[in-house]
Amino acid sequence: MAAPSELFCWKGSWGLPSVDTDSLIVLAYARFAGAPLKIHKISNPWRSPTGYLPALKTQEEGSFSQPSKIIIQLRKQKYNADYDLSAKEGADTLAFISLLEEKLMPALIYTLWIDPKNYVEVTRRWHAENISFPFNFFLPNRMQRQQLERVRLMRGNSTLEAGEEAEKEVSRHRRLYRDAQECMNLLSQRLSSNKFFFGDSPSSLDAYVFGHLAPLLKIKLPSSRLQQHLKSLDNLSSFCCNILSLYFPSESREGVERPASSTQEGSEFDHEPYKRRKQLLSVLVAVAAMLSYAVLTGIVAIEHVQEEVPKGDTTSMRPVYEEEEE
């Protein structure tokens, strides 16, 4: 029997199987389709086979990132959550997924990664606490820049900035929130009183909607304008909670142990001799990084000075090195 494919995704928190939208989409689809994956929940993208999360590693066809490509690979392996959909339902699925990515995703990214309060108090703090040293010093800010660029491309707004500038110009981004609220209202109307979007069985559309809404519903945010709107839509809130309780029962309760099939980051490194080696390497990398930064930015400068030597004095003709700190 062939070994199962391996899925690398962001680890979870706040009662979620993952804190990342794309990871949630793939995890939910795999559960809906019954795909027997070996799951690695990690908090460093560089440990995945593609350098991005989520990533699917297969035995025959290599590794893949992005939810759409991963779902295609799972369908090739005969794990298809959309098998029973009609042509019209398939078309509706594509339309609603495009709506999510165009209208809801920019506002979700803004809420978690660009809003100053949410980013500093929640997003950056979580990543700094869960990413291993020394990567936790620079990966969160690097990820924020990537997400900022992603929103710029989605909205065609090259002037959008993170931090205080974005907060000062919040009136310019009211349309972003308005679009997200309209998208949620349409989803709420389409779901109505149904358990899932196309009857009693979940499909890829349910996975995409869950992946976008679950973080917004569950993560405790100090700036929660979009979150409050979602909580006012009872059927969408119940939809997310039902998927968590039905397909991720252990993750939906804080403090409950993860399933044995999931491999948590760092488990093999938390024991000797790996722990001491990891600590030593981390210190060496951090020292090298700080020294390189100091030299490259000019904080520390090294100058070569030739000392003037009196005529006839050949004993003191040696180069003198000075370190200068700004």
Shape: globular
Low-confidence stretches: 255-275, 314-326
For the report, how would you describe the main beta sheet? 5 strands, mixed
Oligomer: single chain
Category by helix and strand content: alpha/beta
**CA distance, first residue to last residue:** 64 Å
Strand order of the largest sheet: 4-3-1-2-5
Content of β-strand: 5-15%
Instruction: Count the beta strands.
Output: 7
Calculate Rg over CA atoms: 25 Å
Order of helices and strands: EHEEEHHHHHHHHHEHEE
Number of helical stretches of at least 4 residues: 11
- Helix proportion of residues, in percent? 40-55%
Average pLDDT works out at 80
Provide an overview of this structure.
The chain is an alpha/beta fold and 326 residues long. It is 51% helix and 10% strand. The protein is built from eleven helices and seven strands. It has helices spanning 21-33, 67-76, 87-114, 116-130, 139-155, 164-168, 174-191, 204-218, 225-232, 234-247, 274-296, and strands at residues 6-10, 38-42, 55-57, 63-65, 262-264, 300-305, 320-325. The strands form two sheets. A five-stranded mixed sheet has the order 4-3-1-2-5, covered by helices on one side. Helix 1 links the parallel strand 1 and strand 2. The longest helix is centred in the first third of the chain and has 28 residues, at 87-114. It is globular. Residues 255-275 and 314-326 have low confidence and may be disordered.
